Amino acid sequence: MKILVIGAAGMIGRKLVERLARDGALGGAAIAQAHLVDIVAPAAPQEAPFATTTAAVDIGAAYVAPKLIAGEPDVIFLLASIVSGEAESDFDKGYAINLDGARGLFEAIRRRHLASEGRYRPRVLFTSSIAVYGAPFPAVIDDEFFATPLTSYGAQKAISELLLADYSRRGFFDGVGIRLPTICVRPGKPNLAASGFFSNIIREPLAGRAAVLPVSEDVRHWHASPRSAVGFLVHAATMDTARLGARRNLTMPGVSVTVGQQIEALRAVAGEAVVRLIRREADETIMRIVAGWPSNFAARRALDLGFVVEANFEDIIRIHIEDEHGGRIG
Amino acid sequence: MKILVIGAAGMIGRKLVERLARDGALGGAAIAQAHLVDIVAPAAPQEAPFATTTAAVDIGAAYVAPKLIAGEPDVIFLLASIVSGEAESDFDKGYAINLDGARGLFEAIRRRHLASEGRYRPRVLFTSSIAVYGAPFPAVIDDEFFATPLTSYGAQKAISELLLADYSRRGFFDGVGIRLPTICVRPGKPNLAASGFFSNIIREPLAGRAAVLPVSEDVRHWHASPRSAVGFLVHAATMDTARLGARRNLTMPGVSVTVGQQIEALRAVAGEAVVRLIRREADETIMRIVAGWPSNFAARRALDLGFVVEANFEDIIRIHIEDEHGGRIG
Fold first, then answer.
1. Which residues of B are less than 8 Å from A164 in CB distance?
2. A195, B184, B257, B324 — which has fewest CB within 10 A?
3. pLDDT of res. B330
4. Helix (H, G, I), strand (E, B), or coil: what is residue A2?
């Protein structure tokens, strides 16, 4: 089996490749070869039981996708995105990568499908986002609530979902779009994303560093661990897609907690001294942005289809400690 | 005020232009000039109180939209579409016109908006379709039900809606997308569209000709007259769009009736002899296609925003008699 990962240098891409290298297989089929690409050359996994090639490519360039598909990968992960803030500040770049990049890939697969008289029909996994939804929301968003993005990033994801569903319905490939919750706890350094604090207030105190909480404790949000995000992708790559019918895009399960509940979970797992490293410092801009985000979903279809997530936020913290601190803190 | 109508040779386009020529104004502003385009050159209205130019253009060609926008029309009607059946049989052409045609227009407006430092910001009216919805449906589809098209045409309309909303949110233009019901009674000859019989069984008997009914009388569907469709467009062109917020695409009001109720209305308006011209002849293919179509909507937002439609199917028939038979039948 041949795998293509587009966006392999990103946080989820790296963790996905680590998991594939550890498993050596996907859905019972041994992985023979993996091609890993991103806008910067991704690192190859250190001890993968399969051949790995890497390349730096820009999926905004029209010539790229046909070259990526020429080797007929069996499973394609499309994880690459311009993030929300940049897609808002650079309209052309956001559409070029998030819409035209996805469409160019889908179209390159279709051309290969047609040229092979239908023989080539890969599985395509696409990471969408809960940013396809826009306020006002019901208290709990169900699987049939409409997509009304309030950012260009969300519009680009919603459009790519529609393309993925139509190309899949027509039989050009076998696609699954997964709407990821906010990934928490994000490893690495604090970043400038408006959502950064959800991870910062856990990751930084666990590492003995202070963190700023810019919103009130009653802000509720929808989370899943990086490990779950990888699990979603692997499950989507191996599931029976006949059960999806024409509805190919799924809101992934998550854990809906308030910031106060996040802090309580941190206290339960790591103790009061760690929690004391959180400093309250209200930020009106971040509060306003976050107020427009969805906070809770009933992801019934994904749960019925076998996608699994943490049971509670304490488990999300424990997974972070296992995966990023070797199981120990302090 | 300068008007641009793209798709002016189509049934709704022609009736819109007739209405504009009759009114001579839009929202209280006199129309100085109208540019009418379609894939074939549209007819200019016979006695318009404004200057009219016409042209045959293909909006699938990238050079066309910037030329159409160069004259800075104040109000732009985008009515042109590849119809559902052709968009399904010719995948490339459907996407080229229904998606790239719309996007190319939106992008040409944005370029002009940016070049004018924000001065140029026209009103854009886009005809979408209830084909953005796909079965299974609730009995009544509300304004927050999700778009899951089951045709490439529906996907292209849903994508264009998302683009229109994002370009409007960013302030590049002031867009309104209107999801038309099935237009009934369509004037002209019977066509091969699967939905054709909804009009055929009214229009043909009223003209003294036989018509075939290929489905059972309990099939329910969502209708509006051609006159209402023009009314929707004129209202969308003149309404206060501040009331729309970020949700720029609206399901238009309609009349939900079964085929049996259509026939009852025809009997009430035109008598038993006319109804006897309808011949039942079941068509399994058409029955299967129609079973996937939505049949009833609660179009509350559009009604709240002042869009109006016929009160019942008898009125739809009477309007057809007024507009196409000079008010007399038999």
1. none
2. B324
3. 59
4. strand
Name B283's Cβ contacts closer than 8 Å, sequence gap at least 6: B214, B215
| Contact (Cβ atoms closer than 8 angstroms) between residue B161 and residue B249 | yes
Question: CATH topology for A196-222+254-324?
Answer: UDP-galactose 4-epimerase; domain 1 (3.90.25)
Provide the pLDDT confidence category of residue A291 given band limits of 50, 70 and 90. confident
**Pair type for strands B123-129 and B75-78:** parallel
Residue closest to A94 by CA, chosen among B134, B170, B42? B170
Q: How far is CA A128 from CA A39, A209, B23, B158, in A?
A: 19, 32, 47, 17
Please tell me which residue of chain A has the smallest CA distance to B147.
A146
Contact A227, A323 (CB under 8 A): yes
Q: Which CATH number fits domain B196-222+254-298+310-324: 3.90.25.10, 3.40.50.720, 3.40.190.10, 3.40.720.10?
A: 3.90.25.10
Reported ipTM: 0.96
pTM exceeds 0.95 for this model: yes
- Going through chain A in order, the beta strands assigned E by DSSP cover 2-6, 25-26, 29-30, 33-38, 51-56, 75-78, 123-129, 174-180, 182-183, 211-213, 220-224, 249-251, 255-258, 278-280
When scoring A146, A168, A244, A300 by the number of chain B Cβ atoms within 10 A, the one with the most, hence best to mutate, is A146
Asked if residue B291 has pLDDT above 90, the reply is no
A153 is a catalytic site residue = yes
